[in-house]
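Structure first, sequence second, as always.
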């Protein structure tokens, strides 16, 4: 009964991918913590946070695919939502340092002491509690997306104009967070974290737990996204993407539908940023850089937008390639990234997963057409045989 309900809500391939991610959440930490380093199945300690970072990027790409692939909103500002979620978690981690900082001030982070701040800003209150920080990870990106979308969608800003203003929003936040007066560490950002939920953030067990939490978050986000796009609401979203005016004339409140999915997507991006920060160990204004948001678009395009699974694969492949390429030819990475996007646009416009799906769909069509033609020829031959074999039977 449960399996039938899941199959009605999600595609079989989505459930398989979600199950693989959950298995990785269990197997990777066990391999890292329990197996000896000489064991060929052992995953080194340095690889666990690296894979966790890839999972965060996959969650971010999935969030973008939800609005771009299924609603036609090409957002070039999802890096902002990612960074805001990261800053919310970074503020919690900074509050956990306490008197163990360089200046041993139990109330103020080191950068505030260095800049002669006398008291903690009001917007830092509450971040000494994990529950409050986790709530802000969702609320801050979601609220920004809601306010931005409220004005943008009701003004019927679409297409390239919407993409431009989302990137302008991201760049404005980049400039704001660079200022020391904002109270977020300025150019250096937030770093030197000590612990999370009472555990040493550098310990092997903590890193393994963060990886597992990220994998489970990605699996849940995948199932949530699948449930949305396979619902009646998701079908209307595709209508908005393909024929917005016609959908509006049918009586749907297009701006409300866009606003809802844009807000949900921003909150998913915020969760990705929050899980990213403790694994990487730093968050600074560079995460707001417009180039980061453009990279997310490339991951989604390479994997296949409008497929849910494609962006996850694209994020892993592109970032794995980035890790290798930047180690060998660091000065040429941006050229390689641009060439990858051009090649994808020209030769794989549907991305990797979209192209594979199209190939198998055509095979099924050809197979069905062949079987229909074969059945027709067999029936025709049988009728001719019956008519010529016996005149009485023919009569």
């Amino acid at each position: 009964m449960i399996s039938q309900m899941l199959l009605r809500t999600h595609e079989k391939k989505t459930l398989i991918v979600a199950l693989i991610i959950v298995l990785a959440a269990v197997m990777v930490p066990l391999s890292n913590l329990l197996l000896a380093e000489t064991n060929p199945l052992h995953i080194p300690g340095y690889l666990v946070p690296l894979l966790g970072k890839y999972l965060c990027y996959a969650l971010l790409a999935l969030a973008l695919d939800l609005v771009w692939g299924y609603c036609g909103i090409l957002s070039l500002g999802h890096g902002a939502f990612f960074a805001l979620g990261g800053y919310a978690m970074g503020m919690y981690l900074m509050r956990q340092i306490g008197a163990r900082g360089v200046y041993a001030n139990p109330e103020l982070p080191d950068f505030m002491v260095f800049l002669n701040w006398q008291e903690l800003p009001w917007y830092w209150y509450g971040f000494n509690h994990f529950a409050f920080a986790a709530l802000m990870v969702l609320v801050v990106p979601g609220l920004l997306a809601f306010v931005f979308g409220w004005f943008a969608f009701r003004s019927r800003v679409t297409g390239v104009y919407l993409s431009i203003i989302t990137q302008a929003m991201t760049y404005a936040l980049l400039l704001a967070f660079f200022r020391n007066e904002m109270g977020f560490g300025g150019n250096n950002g937030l770093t030197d974290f000590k612990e999370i939920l009472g555990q040493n953030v550098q310990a092997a067990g903590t890193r393994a737990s963060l990886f597992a939490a990220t994998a489970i978050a990605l699996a849940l986000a995948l199932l949530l996204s699948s449930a949305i796009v396979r619902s009646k609401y998701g079908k209307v979203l595709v209508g908005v993407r393909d024929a917005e005016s016609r959908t509006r004339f049918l009586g749907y409140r297009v701006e409300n539908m866009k606003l809802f999915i844009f807000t949900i997507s921003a909150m998913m991006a915020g969760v990705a940023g929050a899980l990213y920060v403790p694994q990487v160990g730093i968050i600074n204004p560079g995460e707001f850089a417009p180039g980061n948001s453009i990279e997310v678009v490339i991951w989604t395009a390479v994997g296949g937008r409008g497929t849910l699974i494609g962006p996850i694969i694209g994020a892993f492949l592109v970032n794995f390639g980035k890790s290798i390429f930047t180690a060998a030819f660091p000065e040429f990475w941006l050229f390689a990234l641009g060439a990858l996007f051009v090649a994808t646009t020209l030769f794989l416009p549907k991305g990797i997963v979209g192209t594979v799906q199209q190939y198998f769909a055509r095979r099924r069509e050809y197979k069905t057409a062949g079987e229909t033609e074969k059945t027709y020829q067999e029936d025709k031959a049988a009728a001719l045989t019956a008519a010529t074999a016996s005149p009485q039977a023919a009569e």
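Margin note: The chain has a mean pLDDT of 91.
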